TrEMBL record:
Keyword Isomerase in record: yes
Name used for this protein in its record: tRNA pseudouridine(55) synthase
Family: Belongs to the pseudouridine synthase Pus10 family.
Keywords on record: Isomerase, tRNA processing
Top-rank taxon: Eukaryota
Annotated GO biological process: tRNA pseudouridine synthesis
Coiled-coil spans in chain: none
PANTHER family for the chain: TRNA PSEUDOURIDINE SYNTHASE PUS10
Region described as Disordered: 340-370
Length: 370
């Protein structure tokens, strides 16, 4: 029939009999120079067979193999569809929202996450069993993701539909955006494995743009000359040496990482009685992996140079609020009005809520890195 679409399926069969484990181990020992190749697992078998020639295989094992010594039982038979991949970009408009479920010491923190606000509707439309969430990096719980948004990917397990049409993904995008104003998605579409590899490859190459509200303490107030000096340093090449930040020592390897600041713009904000001209907005572009918070406050000397060191004259800087305003990665590859949509997003002032009360969010939620 012309209206029927074929769907590729995967059939997984698992057989067992009494001596299968010992025979598998014996086979791997014969084939692997490493004494077993990792044991009777898929990875162990792949490692053992990776460099074995047909001649070596025949010399080590009988071909065909001997019949099973006992009854063979079918343990599991599963039919599933190949993975489906859905990609897009998300904007996080809230400073109290983690990217993925936040579990700390066995306890749930915060009621939901970016992943949980996006995934269920997509899983439901694809009639999938479940989904795993991946993205091009992640922002801290107290950092907004603005501009075009951050590229993300959902891997859908065992979807019961063959594909998602453009009309379906458009309606799905509208549904997600109407459900909760903390997260908005755009460029939602079905992608393939090649697109997934492009997202993974771009993670280490992407450039990120930030807007931060900062306060200078100690030394003289910030001047236009200071702003020009910083812009010149970034233009000539500014490399940071960042030891693993204190806030992530519990989960990151201790190392010193070099990252470049590609551009740096400092804009003093109008003085008021409380701050005497010490508030300023910082806009910067960095290589992937740069720790912007630590660049601003120095992290007890673990980031060199820090912003305060570059300004000189005894100045120290504190970061009050931070936004990611762009992730410069062309993914997913979309046409049409994508560029216009991105420009419209960037016209909005990312610091509008900072000017009203810079400390409002920080009073209720400490800076936490996920």
């Amino acid at each position: 029939r012309g209206d029927v679409e074929t769907i590729p399926l995967q059939l997984a069969l698992e057989f067992r009999y009494a001596d299968d484990a010992s025979e598998s181990d014996d086979c791997l020992r014969r084939l692997s120079s490493g004494g077993g190749g990792g044991g009777s697992t898929r990875h162990g078998a792949a490692s053992a067979l990776a460099s074995v020639s047909a001649e070596a295989f025949k010399a080590a094992l009988p071909c065909p193999p001997a019949p099973a010594s006992g009854p063979v039982k079918l343990i599991v038979a599963e039919v599933s569809k190949e993975l489906m991949f859905v990609g897009g970009r998300y904007r996080k408009l809230c400073r109290r929202l983690p990217q993925t479920p936040w579990i700390l010491d066995g306890e749930r923190r915060m009621d939901t996450s970016v992943e949980e606000l996006i995934s269920p509707a997509i899983v439901r439309l694809a009639k999938a069993d479940s989904a795993s969430f991946a993205s091009a990096g992640r922002e801290d719980v107290d950092v907004r993701m603005l501009g075009r948004g951050r590229p993300f990917l959902l891997r859908l397990l065992n979807p019961r539909v063959a594909r998602l049409t453009a009309a379906e993904t458009a309606a799905l995008q509208a549904e997600i955006n109407a459900a909760d104003d903390r997260v908005q998605v755009s460029h939602l579409c079905q992608v393939n494995r090649a697109h997934c590899e492009a997202l993974r490859a771009g993670e280490s190459e992407k450039v990120k743009c930030y807007s931060a509200l900062c306060r200078c303490t100690g030394g003289p107030p910030i001047t236009a000359e200071d702003a020009g000096k910083l812009s010149g340093l970034a233009a000539s090449g500014l490399v940071l040496e960042q030891s693993t930040p204190v806030r992530v020592l519990h989960r990151r390897t201790v190392a010193v990482r070099k990252r470049r600041i590609l551009s740096l713009n400092l804009e003093p904000l109008p003085p008021d009685a409380a701050d005497a001209g010490r508030l300023f907005r910082l806009r910067l572009r960095t290589e992937a992996g740069a720790y912007v918070k630590e660049f601003v406050h120095g992290d007890l000397g673990r980031t060199r140079p820090s912003l305060g060191e570059l300004l000189g004259e005894g100045r120290q800087c504190d970061l009050l609020l931070l936004d990611v305003v762009d992730v410069e990665l062309d993914w997913p590859h979309v046409g049409g009005d994508a560029a216009a949509e991105s420009k419209a997003d960037l016209k909005a002032d990312p610091d509008a809520d900072l000017k009203a009360d810079p400390d409002a969010d920080l009073k209720v939620d400490p800076v936490v890195d996920l």
